UniProtKB/TrEMBL annotation, chain A:
It catalyses: DNA(n) + a 2'-deoxyribonucleoside 5'-triphosphate = DNA(n+1) + diphosphate. It comes from Alkalicoccus urumqiensis. Residues 37-179 form the AAA+ ATPase domain. This is DNA-directed DNA polymerase. Belongs to the DnaX/STICHEL family. Residues 545-556 have a biased composition (Acidic residues).
Automatic annotation (TrEMBL), chain B:
One of its GO terms (molecular function) is DNA binding. It comes from Alkalicoccus urumqiensis. It catalyses: DNA(n) + a 2'-deoxyribonucleoside 5'-triphosphate = DNA(n+1) + diphosphate. The keyword Nucleotidyltransferase applies. Its EC number is 2.7.7.7. It holds the Pfam family DNApol3-delta_C. GO terms for biological process: DNA-templated DNA replication. The lineage of its organism: Bacteria, Bacillati, Bacillota, Bacilli, Bacillales. InterPro entries: DNA_pol_HolB, DNA_pol_III_delta_C, DNA_Rep/Repair_Clamp_Loader, P-loop_NTPase. Keywords: DNA replication, DNA-directed DNA polymerase, Nucleotidyltransferase, Transferase. This is DNA polymerase III subunit delta'. Residues 245-327 form the DNA polymerase III delta subunit C-terminal domain. One of its GO terms (cellular component) is DNA polymerase III complex.
Automatic annotation (TrEMBL), chain C:
The lineage of its organism: Bacteria, Bacillati, Bacillota, Bacilli, Bacillales. This is Beta sliding clamp. Residues 1-127 form the DNA polymerase III beta sliding clamp N-terminal domain. Residues 255-375 form the DNA polymerase III beta sliding clamp C-terminal domain. Forms a ring-shaped head-to-tail homodimer around DNA.
């Protein structure tokens, strides 16, 4: 067809057009000019780096009418004939289809025939690693005593499969992965010549994703031209390769790092719902962490510089993440990636990874696997937390909790305890306390409590079976920085926890949350009452009055009222009754 | 799926690139379609072949009724060649035959198409011998290579084709489609969480299989929580008789994994993301009782059980062992 | 579709087209024979996708009535069964009826067969004679053209286009060339009344032309040749042979032929061939190198050495010798292949030194040329 893919059209026809292999092209040019040519060359290196192109150019250069010269002229009849395949003296053989002894022997026999039109018969054998052992041996004989009018150019992406005896008889050139830099330069040349409008960072992304293969880069660029309407942007490239945007990836990694399981899971959900592929996402994460490790460990590398260039969020992220953590993550990721390959729903594995990885950071040594001393450390830690709490309590209340009224020392929190120690009065006191703390309760905090509650239970269970049994009955329903409200259905359970096991539960909880907390236990019925009262109070409170202002302005769409939003944020929707 | 507009409902990016390429005369000569089952690769390959061959395309859409279009579909188009594994692998001789076929001009026109399915099953020799041909075919040729995973394809092949990744259908869409077809939501959600292939999901409703299977697993999970000593009996009497072959055991394990995943979602307050929507109470309860650690362990235990099931461990044994692990520490 | 046909005519034509049918066809429909019935006769087509053969059975052939066509139509029937059935039917006429479900009823006497047929629209559409550039060749000339070039095509798959014979038409001259890159055979023929027909880069698989040669009946005087974009058609009276063309660019062989020479000799063809044949008696089959040395103006020495086996020396007298002394080596088998198709008494050979290709021609005619690459000896 008249249209040819970019990588075909822009195949280099001169040594100088080969990107990123200056060390090779320079040597070859010199050899051509000085006519110090070898009869056998071996070009090795990853795909799309220019091996076959270089071989074809070399074949032309040695036969060109203007030889000796460092480049073929590409104009004379010989150069043209070689380019369009009409000159029989240059033969491109694909070793995979012709890998047997017989085919090579046939070459050997025909090698003796003098070239028809050109000065040299050139055999370009591609993917030469596919030859059988017998074929290699047959080839070796010819390489040992090559006729003067013959040149062999062998090319392969897998040099380790070539017998040393062959390698030793060739002049070897190792083609390297093209640096992003060199790729960018060549691509810029091409887009300018072909008048393709593309943004700078889109090109950088293409270069990065192609991992050193020019052909891959041009294939991607081709797709981008078909996809984009107008100028090609970074988003276009991302859409094509199916990657999530870098920003999302950074956010995901951060969420995992900071232990926010919920956040991480939500983000994974979102990404999956937009049709991203779980395996792809896993790969993207791995590449991201790998890149971060690279810039941290070897910032001076050209590749590291390329990566950091222009990407501030990346820079920030790489500074935040610790190397040790990164290593652990990579290990985990590799493990999960393996499992994921055969999974029917890889998303679950992603989620499990997120869970396990986040737990790594929030889990204190107590709840983790690992160290033998953990139990001693654990015990000590518990004691410390317990002491801390007691001190705090004393500071607040002056005297151990049991019965006395106290003067509030600290301006912030004043808790009055009822003089009576009777149950009903006590419960009324607690109810009041609960009401008061509700003002400072926040939903996120409750969320955090809920998600770690299981850990607390486990902790408690380790130390006391009965305690955990009682504790099973309750539910945390509100949490502030210092308090957690536990609602019980059974009075006996409640009082057991409240009195007998308070310390145990509080210290376990404190350990889990990393901060001292006090428990407020309350019965379900009482809790409902407290909620009612709280709502009533909210309506007459300052925040309620301002509602009339907002009522005038905007239509009564609850979502849009910032004050209500704030209230919701603080205590959760259940506790609010919003009236127009 | 017969038109670009249909394709763009599930694979918008790919539909756009391909349709634009045809429209603007920028069709490449080699494509690699990668993606899981049910993502539409084969249909897309056929669509592309037709758009390429059809003489009466309108805005790059094939007419679907001309001889070219009809024969491309029925497999009788002389210039459309399909290669499938011969046994387990695609052999080098098949590629050789393909190359020989392509050394000639098309039978009816200058255009030729070849579609290789399950490309990852090509032997090394077959794959390597395709390279030169893939890169510089004679004449107007179009190649479409289809594979489940690009990671299993030789990088040298990948770089010669334009790689297009087919995204799986998001679970919500599958659920929605199933509900639209009249299935109950709780079961639709379950099916959608097991597969992203709409056809496969529908098949699960044959003979009420999915609804029964689901119930049984729910029963098991409930027993595990409230009557652990009965759990073993449930396994014997309810689970094993129903989930009989290896494939079904894997599904049972999947259903259990999804259960724990739901517990996890409850824990982090994402109750709207659960699959077992009618079990919220039990899920909530478990969310409190299990530490996240334990939950992670449970999920891992089920995953391990899945792997062992794939390794031919007798099913009953591995389910019982799984139960043991799940009950550990609770 | 409904018609009644003379069985022997039917069988004969079925056999013709069956030659093109291969059981290993990649396209399922190609295991069948296409039968088309029109007012003027029946057309049968068989194909293996590389070559196709169409046979036409006219309703009336002079005084004979071959077919009685009641209703036109078309169907594709499985060749395997169909051919055998028709052969074994009892009577001298056969009646074919096609119903709506593509089932074909075949009746002859008291035998009745019902065969499931396939949609004829699924059968590949072959190019028609009107679609391309046409010219006419005498049958014996065509056969000679084929014989004198087909032997030189390449048998390797490495360069598929060399497995074909290149046909080019310019100024009423048809030139056929075949090469495997180490030897080349070229044959020219004048084609009067080819009018404005000109084409180049028409490369026909050697295998197809060899098949064609076998099928062409000597009773046919001429063959009409049509060249289209993708295929070449050879039409004899009621037989049409089609072959696909090879894709790609055929090498520019004109450049391969040296325009000047340093040594010209003329030798009797038979003698030369016999000498070389004998010289090759000692060779191991793989290595067929023969050395030629000019002794004096009248004599050529031909030798061959096979290590550990022995050496052979031959002498051939030249009728003419002009130019420099000569020492050259070449593949003897290639020369013999060429000599076999040269029908003249004497051959003229032109050399340009030991490292350049040399040409061999019939001494009396200009219409044929053979080119060989020498072999390097050290």
């Amino acid at each position: 067809m008249s249209y040819q893919a970019l990588y075909r059209v822009w195949r280099p026809h001169t040594l100088k057009d080969i990107a990123g292999q200056d060390h090779i092209t320079k040597t070859l040019k010199n050899a051509l000019v000085q006519q110090k040519l070898s009869h056998a060359y071996l070009f090795t290196g990853p795909r799309g780096t220019g091996k076959t192109s270089a071989a074809k150019i070399l074949a032309k250069a040695v036969n060109c009418r203007h030889a000796p010269a460092e480049e073929p002229c590409n104009e004379c009849d010989i150069c043209r004939g070689i380019s369009d395949g009409s000159i029989v003296d240059v033969m491109e053989i694909d070793a995979a289809s012709n890998n047997g002894v017989d085919e090579i022997r046939d070459i050997r026999d025909k090698v003796r025939f003098a070239p028809n039109t050109a000065a040299y018969k050139v055999y370009i054998i591609d993917e030469v690693h596919m030859l059988t052992t017998g074929a290699f041996n047959a080839l070796l004989k010819t390489l040992e005593e090559p006729p003067p009018h013959v040149m062999f150019i062998l090319a392969t992406t897998e040099p380790h499969k070539i017998p040393l005896t062959i390698i030793s008889r060739c002049q070897r050139f190792d083609f390297k992965r093209i640096t992003s830099h060199a790729m960018l330069a060549r691509m810029q040349e091409i887009v300018a010549a072909d008048e393709i409008a593309v943004e700078e960072d889109a090109l950088s992304l293409v270069a990065r994703v192609s991992q050193g293969g020019m052909r891959d880069a041009l294939s991607l660029l081709d797709q981008a031209v078909s996809f984009a309407e107008g100028t090609i942007t970074k988003e276009d490239i991302l859409a094509i390769i199916g990657s999530v945007s870098q920003e999302h990836l950074y956010e995901l990694v951060e969420a995992v790092h900071s232990g926010s399981v919920g956040e991480a899971l939500k983000m994974i959900d979102e990404m999956m719902q937009t049709g991203k592929d779980a395996n792809r996402l896993m790969e993207d994460v791995i590449f991201l962490l790998r890149d971060i490790l690279m810039v941290k460990a070897a910032p001076q590398l050209e590749e590291s510089q390329d990566r950091l260039h222009g990407d501030d969020s990346f820079r920030e992220l790489s500074e935040k993440l610790e190397q040790a953590w990164l290593f652990q993550m990579m290990e985990k990721l590799n493990h999960f990636q393996q499992e994921m390959k055969w999974a029917t729903h890889p998303q679950l594995f992603l989620e499990m990874f997120a869970v396990q990885a986040s737990q790594q950071t929030t889990a204190l040594p107590a709840s983790g696997e690992s160290a033998p001393q953990s139990s001693t450390v654990e015990a000590l830690e518990q004691k410390i937390v317990h002491l801390e709490r007691t001190v705090q309590k004393l500071q607040r209340e002056g005297v151990p909790a049991a019965s006395q009224p106290q003067a509030a020392e600290q301006p912030v929190k004043q808790e009055k305890r009822s003089r009576n120690t009777g149950p009903s009065q006590k419960s009324r006191a607690v109810a009041k306390q609960v009401e008061r703390m509700l003002e400072h309760a926040t939903k996120p905090q409750l969320q955090q409590v809920k998600s770690s509650w299981g850990n607390v239970l486990e902790q408690v269970k380790k130390q006391s079976m009965p305690a955990s049994a009682w504790l099973n009955d309750c539910q945390p329903t509100a949490a502030s920085e210092e308090y957690v409200v536990l609602v019980f259905r059974n009075e006996m359970h409640r009082s057991m926890i409240d009195e007998k096991f308070r310390e145990l539960v509080e210290s376990s909880a404190s350990q889990q949350f990393g901060a001292a907390v006090t428990l407020l236990t309350i019965l379900e019925a009482d809790w409902e009452k407290v909620k009612e009262n709280f709502k009533k109070r909210q309506k007459t409170s300052p925040s309620g009055e301002d509602n009339e202002e907002s009522g005038e302005e905007a239509p009564p769409e609850e979502e849009k009222n910032p004050l209500i939003d704030e209230a919701v944020r603080l205590v959760g929707e259940d506790l609010l009754e919003i009236k127009e | 799926m017969q038109t670009w507009s249909e394709l763009s409902e599930t694979q918008p990016t790919i539909a756009r690139v391909l349709q634009n390429s045809v429209r603007r005369g920028r069709l490449a000569h080699a494509y690699l379609f990668e993606g899981g089952r049910g993502t539409g690769r084969r249909a897309a390959a056929l669509l592309l072949a037709r758009a390429f061959l059809c003489e009466k395309t309108v805005d790059a859409e094939p007419c679907l009724v001309c001889r070219e279009c009809r024969r491309a579909e029925s497999g009788n188009h002389p210039d459309v060649h399909r290669i499938q594994p011969d046994g387990q692998t695609i052999k080098v001789d098949q590629i050789r035959a393909l190359k020989k076929e392509f050394s000639m001009r098309g039978m009816e026109s200058a255009k030729k198409v070849y579609i290789i399915e399950e490309t990852e099953t090509m032997s090394a020799a077959a794959a390597n011998s395709l390279l030169k041909f893939l890169e510089e075919p004679e004449g107007e040729a179009l190649a479409v290579l289809i594979t489940a995973s690009a990671g299993q394809i030789l990088p040298t092949i990948l770089s010669r084709a334009q790689v297009m990744s087919f995204s799986p259908l998001p679970p919500d869409r599958v659920t929605k489609a199933l509900v639209e077809r009249g299935f109950r939501e709780k079961e639709a959600r379950t099916a959608a969480s097991l597969t992203s292939d709409l056809e496969e999901a529908e098949r699960m409703f044959d003979e009420e299989w999915i609804s029964q299977g689901r119930e049984k697993v729910v029963q098991l999970m409930n027993d595990l929580i409230s009557r652990p000593q009965d759990a073993y009996i449930t396994v014997h009497e309810t689970i094993m008789p129903f989930f009989t072959d290896r494939q079904q055991i894997q599904t049972a394990l999947d259903l259990m994994m999804i259960w724990y995943r739901d517990v996890l979602r409850m824990q982090v307050g994402q109750s709207d993301a659960v699959v077992y929507i009618d079990q919220e109470d039990t899920l909530t309860k478990q969310a409190f009782q299990l530490s996240q650690q334990k939950l992670g362990k449970n999920l891992q235990a089920v995953m391990d059980a899945k792997r062992r099931a794939g390794a031919n461990v007798p099913p009953q044994l591995l389910v019982e062992q799984l139960l043991l692990r799940l009950q550990e520490g609770s | 579709m409904k018609f009644t046909i003379q069985r022997d005519v039917f069988v004969q034509n079925i056999q013709h087209v069956s030659k093109a049918i291969s059981s290993r066809a990649t396209l399922p429909i190609l295991t069948g024979i296409k039968i088309v019935a029109f007012d003027d006769g029946i057309t049968l087509t068989g194909s293996d996708s590389d070559i196709s053969i169409e046979a036409f059975i006219p309703a009336e052939d002079g005084d004979n009535s071959n077919v009685d066509i009641e209703r036109p139509g078309a169907v594709v029937l499985q060749a395997k069964y169909f051919a055998d059935i028709i052969k074994k039917l009892p009577e001298s006429t056969v009646e074919l009826t096609l119903n709506d479900q593509m089932v074909t009823k075949i009746r002859s006497g008291s035998s009745e067969f019902n065969l499931n047929g396939q949609d004829p629209d699924d059968f590949p559409r072959l190019p028609e004679v009107e679609e391309g550039s046409q010219f006419t060749l005498k049958t014996d000339l065509l056969k000679a053209l084929i014989k004198q070039t087909a032997f030189a095509v390449s048998t390797a798959e490495t360069r598929p286009i060399l497995t074909g014979i290149h046909w080019g038409m310019e100024s009423e001259k048809l030139m056929c060339t075949a090469t495997d890159s180490h030897r080349l055979a070229m044959r020219e023929a004048g084609v009067e009344e080819s009018g404005d027909v000109e084409f180049t880069n028409v490369v026909i698989p050697g295998k197809s032309l060899t098949e064609l040669s076998k099928i062409l009946d000597d009773s046919e005087e001429t063959v009409d040749v049509t060249v289209t974009d993708n295929q070449v058609l050879f039409k004899a009276t009621n037989l049409l042979f089609l072959s696909r063309l090879l894709d790609g660019n055929y090498p520019a062989t004109k450049n391969m032929i040296p325009s000047q020479s340093k040594t010209n000799i003329q030798v009797p063809a038979k003698q030369l061939m016999a000498a070389i044949e004998r010289a090759l008696l000692l060779s191991d089959g793989k290595n067929n190198v023969v050395n030629l040395k000019s002794l004096n103006e009248n004599e050529l020495e031909i030798t061959s050495v096979t290590p550990e086996v022995g050496k052979v020396t031959e002498s051939v007298s030249c009728d003419a010798f002009e130019g420099e002394e000569l020492r050259i080596s070449f593949n003897g088998k290639n020369i013999i292949d060429a000599l076999r198709v040269i029908e003249s008494q004497d051959v003229a050979i032109q050399f340009t030194g030991a490292m350049s290709p040399f040409i061999m021609r019939p001494a009396d005619r200009d219409y044929m040329l053979h080119l060989f690459s020498p072999v390097r000896t050290y």
